[in-house]
Each structure stands twice: as C-alpha cells, then as structure tokens.
Specification:
Helix 2 links the parallel strand 1 and strand 2. The chain is elongated and about 70 Å long. The relative contact order is 0.14. The protein has 122 residues and is an alpha/beta fold. It has a 3-stranded parallel sheet with strand order 1-2-3, with helices on one face. The chain contains 3 helices and 3 strands, in the order αβαβαβ.
C-alpha cells in the first residue's frame, strides 16, 4: 500500500461513521405525548425484545402513556400466574405508570406451549 491509501482509509472510516451516526439521530420518529400499546405474545417478551424501546417511550420527559397487551400468560409449564406477576413487575421497572397498564389475556384461544396446536378455522 502506498502512503496515501494508508492515510485515506482512517479518514474515510471516520467520515462514514460520522455521517451514519448523524443520520440515525434524525431519521427516527420522535414520540411524545402519545398513547402507545405494545402487543407481545407472552410474558418476558417485553424484557427480552423491547426493553430499550420501552425505556425510551416511558422516559419521564416523553409524556407518553404506554400500555402492554400480552396474548398469553405463558402457562406452558404451569407457571402462568408467576409469569404474569413477573410481567407486571417488569413493566413497572421499565417505566409503565401502573399495574393497570398491563393486560394479560388468559384465553383458551391463545394457549401457550411448544406442542400446542391452534385450530386453523378460528
């Protein structure tokens, strides 16, 4: 490699990093003073997949009111009530305003389990 290539590569990398860093700051929507519902399949999804999003949406200065709708209580191993309580505790830690902002559907139409087959005709 010649001298100019060795100098150009770090400058190019720094320039591209700066461009993409600024682009990502301006390209995302700004949610403030909104009512937002996060739909999840079962307890623990809020923590495993959406923690950063929930923390941003529930920041005190955002003015957002976030709720979680969970389609199952996660009772695959008989731990549905425990997992439901863990979801409520997790929601409070992640900034939801109250326990009432979490709704868990405990419906036979959405039974949780790796071997559970749902009816196709419903």
């Amino acid at each position: 490699m010649d001298y100019y290539t060795i100098l150009a590569v770090p400058i190019l990398i720094a320039t591209l990093w700066h461009f993409t860093a600024n682009l990502s700051r301006t390209s995302h929507p700004n949610f403030t003073n909104k009512s937002i519902v996060l739909l999840i399949a079962h307890p623990d999804d809020e923590a495993m997949f959406f923690s950063p999003t929930l923390l941003a949406l529930t920041a005190p200065n955002s003015g957002n009111h976030v709720k979680i709708l969970c389609l199952s209580n996660g009772n695959a191993d008989g731990l549905g009530k425990t997992r439901q309580q863990e979801l409520i505790a997790s929601g409070e830690i992640l900034g939801l305003r109250s326990r009432d902002d979490i709704l868990v559907l405990d419906s036979p139409d959405f039974v949780d389990g790796m071997k559970t087959l749902w009816e196709v005709d419903k």
